[in-house]
Amino acid sequence: MNTIKLAENWRRKNGYADKGGVVVVFDGVVQGWVNELRDPDHWRPGCIAVDARGVEFLAHGGSAQDGAQRWDMAACAAPAAIPH
Questions:
Q1: Which domain holds residue 59?
Q2: Is 82 within the bounds of a domain?
Q3: Distance between CA 62 and CA 52 in Å, rounded?
Q4: Quick check: is 83 in a domain?
Q5: Does the structure show a pLDDT above 80 at 77?
Q6: What is the distance between the alpha carbons of residues 58 and 73, in angstroms, rounded to a whole number?
Q7: Is the CB of residue 57 less than 8 Å from the CB of residue 22?
């Protein structure tokens, strides 16, 4: 299951579907929810935060012990080619 679907399912099952914020996932497992994207040092590099719109942010830099240094928006997939 992709990270966005995982986050959507977790929101629905846990009563967070209408609360905004972000669901944080690491290694395919939901780690928690926070009301806004902040404090990358509280999460290890490689975490993926998914907001209520399905936008993904990746935790980069730092270390597993000290936490990440920043959140970066994930690169979007290229739109599918439109047939002529």
A1: 3-73
A2: no
A3: 26
A4: no
A5: no
A6: 6
A7: yes
